[in-house]
Amino acid sequence: MHQPTPRARAWPLAGLLLLTSLASHAAPDGDTLMQKGGANPAAMPCISCHAPDGKGMAPAGFPRLAGLPADYIRKQLHDFKAGRRQNGVMQPIATALTEEEIDALAGAYAARPRVNVAPQPVGTPPEGSGAWIALRGAWDRSIPECTLCHGPGGIGVDPSFPPLAGQGAVYIENQLKAWRGTPAVKAHGKTRAVAAVPPSRQNDPNGLMQHIAASLTPTEMKAVAEYFGSLGDSSEPFDDTQHRLR
């Protein structure tokens, strides 16, 4: 009987090692990462907080990621890594993700359905309301309307200005607070002074959001967050013309 030479016996083993190597270097799949997390156990599954459909959990303050621009998601994860955006949950996760995993997740979420904003009534909103600030701003305090950057109806303008329509009110309000930080409180009577806490989010273009957040009152923050949180996701057929600026 013919006996294979040592070299011939080595070829199957080499092929197996090659296949194993190729598999280990295969590009990560974004949908799998959402469901199972990254290669590092610290990179936990996204769906735990952002829901299986990527629309977030509004009452808990976890944002919608479905339909966000890939470049925006990629930047936020890098900003978490760099500490430009501070969050006790997201910073360890972003740090544990590889660059390939970040790219895969950004692309997978961007490919999911964008927010489907329902048509809004035409008319002048009550002055000082959340809709007023969102659509008209408060120019006497140098606060531009939100839609100036975030697009008509808050649909977002790629890649720097994300959609506000369809995001949960709790999340939007929390981000405004993160951009503002906590102002210092002077001592008054028996009350001790409280030192200021710097903003935990410092990744906006030219500090624009920090200025706006510092200029809004807590009541205005809540009102404008609730306004955008009340828009979308409509069950009506998706109208792509509302995203024509994207």
UniProtKB/TrEMBL annotation:
Keyword Phosphoprotein in record? no
- Statement: the UniProt record of this protein carries the keyword Transferase: no
- What PROSITE patterns does the annotation carry? CYTC
Where do the annotations place heme c 1 binding?
A: C46, C49, H50, M90
Question: What's a GO cellular component annotated to this UniProt protein?
Answer: periplasmic space
Recorded GO MF terms: electron transfer activity; heme binding; iron ion binding
Q: How is it modified after translation?
A: Binds 2 heme c groups covalently per subunit.
Against SUPFAM superfamilies, the record matches this protein to: Cytochrome c
What are the protein's UniProt keywords? Answer: Heme, Iron, Metal-binding, Signal
Q: Which InterPro entries match?
A: Cyt_c-like_dom, Cyt_c-like_dom_sf, Cytochrome_c4-like, Cytochrome_c_Oxidase_Subunit
Domain (Cytochrome c) spans 25-113, 123-232
Annotated signal sequence is 1-26
Residues the record lists as binding heme c 2: C146, C149, H150, M209
Q: Which residues form a coiled coil?
A: none
Protein name according to UniProt: Cytochrome c4
